[in-house]
Amino acid sequence: MAKATFSPGAPGARRYGQPAAKPKSGSIWAMYKRMFFHVRSHWLLLAAAFFCMIAVSLLEFAIPRLSQYTIDVIIPDKRYGALVWIGAGVLGTAVLLGVFHFLSSMLMASVGQRAVYDIRSEMYRHIQKLDIEFFDRNRTGDLMSRVTNDVNMLQQLVSSGMMSLVTDWFTFVAVAAYMLWINWQLTLIVLLTFPVMIATTHFFGKRMRAAFKKVQETVAEVSSHLQDTLSSIRLIKSFSNEAFEADRFAVRSRTNMDANLNAVKIRASFEPFIDFMLFLGLAAVLIVGAMHTMDGKMTIGTIVAFMAYLRLLQNPIRRFSRTINTIQQSAAAYERIVDILGTRPQVTDAPDAIELTDVKGRVSFHNVGFAYHGGLPVLRNFDFEIEAGRITAIVGSSGAGKSTITHLMTRFYDPQEGTVSIDGKRLTGVTLKSLRGNMGIVSQDIVLLNGTIRENIVYGKPDATDEEVVFAARAASAHDFIMSFPQGYDSPIGERGVKLSGGQKQRISIARAILKNPRLIILDEATSSLDTESEKSIQDALAYLLEGRTCLVIAHRLSTIQKADRIYVLDKGEIIESGTHQSLLRQQGKYAQLYELQFPQKEAADGPDEMSAAPRRSERGR
């Protein structure tokens, strides 16, 4: 049977900028319905578990019946020999109850764990498919909390909660029917208290769900703070802010504690009321039943058995008052899970998207307008072209829109206006996988995984051979320093490559790009944070990487782009100059100003013929 999935198009699905639909009051049943779709593929385990639960419910009838028979028949008739069989029957029933309880618990736990595995895997896959804007809007710690803590809450619902509800429901119906057959008057007295308990459960249930949702949200706050601070521990220590962060963490922990205490207070108010109503029914049955027994309308054995059955009838209600705690926790967690699974990405493959093949690498921006999250426009009526097989560079001050161009080229975002195309094909008309598969990015913000050097190099090509890995490392000028480590390519690099220097990280990222062998390379401030020696090694590696490929270079250091075929100067989302290095210097515009700021001595040494800058300085001197 095919595995069911949470459909992003299900009720509650939304797009960015639209709040998630608030779950209806029947969301508990909606939750159970969806959980059933996730566990139905394990129907054999479910069937076996339900059989065990029904067996438990039926066996619980046996002991009260044995008690009644003993009091009404064996004791008056003094059947001493039958007592052995009564004892054997009670012990046998107890053994069978233990066996079926064990089997039902194990089977439902197995179903629950499998359901959690399915949901967590599906949730992770779904999050991976969401676009960058989703991650801009959501904190990492909160997402981690939803994938771990919230999904674990659902596991409790499937294993213990579902088992308890099914067993208790069957027991309640069976015992109530039997009690009505024995004495309908006494049974009605008990059942009259149930509408009050149902109304009370509904009243407290809504408040418990809201309280537990607050608990889950505060857990996410704690997780987010932990993730932020632990990943920034060097920054915290460099500013000696350990005490400050400890105080901030204490505030979030305190909020979580208060939310938990509020949930406990609501639960603690609910359970005594249910117990009071149960004891009220017990007192009524005891009084009326005693009167019937004294009047000769009932035997002592019957009233004893009836009291035992009453206990069986009340146990499901008492257990449900405890289980409602788990149910409402799961309902709160379910709402947070559906909020993620119902989110639909804006950047997706079109239904008729084609594979991008035979890439040359000509990229065109036509009349592009773009703003982040509905903010101020970064690009307006933007026209731009990267020629195939050439090196194109973009320079400009921070905030000019340089990185935005790379984000649009890789379809991390789609423009609100205009089009971006590659080799004449609109990016929205090709598949994301084929588009990004033909691109390689080497950024200033190097992302390395917590693994070995080899695992990081082969990340873009998992099936690469050892020879290919070594070749890529040599081309990136990384092989020598890699072999200096005791374990060579199998050396662990720590979280985010903490065991490597900046230049080593950069060369590993270049080796990763070389191994991927993309047709289009994006260098985003690739050498801006390196020392001169490291930059020289990396420039040599980049020269190999760029050979025969289309390349877009974004740089603050103008020394890295002097050999570019074309340089664009960007200012406030608009191209204000373009040309080669020399032609831009002769224009005496923004580019020449930036160059003069970075190389004042070189400008003077090169003289007016090279830089055409001496007259400008002499004019300022007058």
Structure commentary:
With 622 residues, the chain is an alpha/beta fold. The protein folds into four domains: 27-341, Up-down Bundle (ABC transporter transmembrane region fold), CATH 1.20.1560; 360-438 and 521-527 and 550-579, P-loop containing nucleotide triphosphate hydrolases (Rossmann fold); 441-517, Rossmann fold; 582-622, no CATH class. Helices cover 63% and strands 10% of the residues. The chain has 22 helices and ten strands. The strands form two sheets. Strands 6-7-8-3-9-10 form a six-stranded mixed beta sheet, sandwiched between helices. A four-stranded antiparallel beta sheet has the order 2-1-4-5, covered by helices on one side. α17 (502-516) packs parallel to α18 (532-546). Residues 1-22, 600-622 are annotated as: Disordered.
Form type: elongated
Q: What is the radius of gyration?
A: 36 Å
Number of helices: 22
What is the fold named in CATH at topology level of the largest domain?
Answer: ABC transporter transmembrane region fold
Assigned CATH superfamily of the largest domain: ABC transporter type 1, transmembrane domain
How many domains comprise the coordinates?
4
Mean pLDDT: 77
The main pleated sheet reads as:
6 strands, mixed
Class computed from helices, strands and strand pairing: alpha/beta
Compile the SSE list and pairings.
Blueprint: H1 27-39, H2 43-59, H3 62-77, H4 80-129, H5 132-137, H6 140-182, H7 184-191, H8 194-231, H9 233-238, H10 242-294, H11 300-341, E1 363-371, E2 377-386, E3 391-396, H12 402-409, E4 417-422, E5 425-426, H13 432-437, E6 439-443, H14 453-457, H15 466-475, H16 479-483, H17 502-516, E7 520-524, H18 532-546, E8 550-554, E9 566-571, E10 574-579, H19 581-587, H20 590-598, H21 600-611, H22 614-621
Parallel strand pairs: 3-8, 3-9, 6-7, 7-8
Antiparallel strand pairs: 1-2, 1-4, 4-5, 9-10
Helix pairs in contact: 2-4, 2-6, 3-4, 3-11, 4-6, 6-7, 6-8, 6-11, 7-10, 8-10, 8-11, 10-11, 15-17, 17-18, 20-21
